[in-house]
Amino acid sequence: RHIISSVVEHSAVRKSLELLEKQGFEITRLAPQPDGSIAEADVMAALREDTCLVSLMMVQNETGAVTDIAGIAKAVKAKNPNTLIHTDAVQAFMKVPFSAKKLGVDLIAVSGHKIHAPKGIGALYIRKGLNLPPYIVGGGQEGRGIYSGTQPMPSILGFDGAMRALPDLRMQLEQTEQLRDYFVRNATTIPDVVINSGADCLPYITNLSVMGHPAQTMLNFLSERGIYVSGGSACSKGHRSTVLTAMGLEPARIDSALRISFSRFTTKEEIDMLLNGLESGATMLKKKL
Known about the structure:
- The protein is an alpha/beta fold.
- The chain has two domains: about 160 residues, Aspartate Aminotransferase, domain 2; about 120 residues, Aspartate Aminotransferase, domain 1 (Alpha-Beta Complex), CATH 3.90.1150.
- About 35% of the residues lie in helices and about 15% in strands.
- The chain contains ten helices and nine strands.
- It has a six-stranded mixed sheet with strand order 2-1-3-4-5-6, sandwiched between helices. Strands 7-8-9 form a three-stranded antiparallel sheet.
- Strand 4, helix 4 and strand 5 form a beta-alpha-beta unit.
- The radius of gyration is 20 Å and the shape is globular.
- The chain starts with a strand and ends with a helix.
């Protein structure tokens, strides 16, 4: 009844762990490395004979940090084959090349809205032979008895369509990396801008701080000019980022942090708009202080 996870998981996982903790499970919450990823060595140091589950995010949703889930799974299964491994792959799905077989995990959660599918649709990969109790009880006619109720076919078809519409994954990753590098290279020339994401983070997410300017103030400034970024994950709105806090960043840097999200539709012209907006904001807002 021991579970290993981390302090930088999505709130959907963190809140579920809190519930399990109240039910008597012992939770080990690992601290991240400076870039927000989780080290294999830390997982193995925490692994016990009674560890029933390891649940770790593949790509951190605020910084883009990539955790080596395949390496962790291989090491954990070699030492304790009965330990189940779950990964939240929402930010990695159709952006990072992976397969269930190569990952070697038991459970993979993905979501449609990150690849432009309808909101509210997702999928859970369950390793063949792993029998889970029903998520919703009822007729048991859907999903091998795990889920009861009528399937949302329009959303499911939209999810399928979004996947089929995606371009070559590796080519898109390379193009997005070039755009991200262009953005970071120019953003770091703007006074008071500090990049919080590591160089090896997934290029679809870049976290930065405009020091001296609260995130909400900069968000408002940019949105008035038709530029939309976020101050963190939607689920942490109104609270200081637990992820950046766990990474050891100073409060002033956390409170001014912005999350920039790129997609296959992002253009260089849009990035230039953002760069101009950040530079104008850093200059104009400083004059008002």
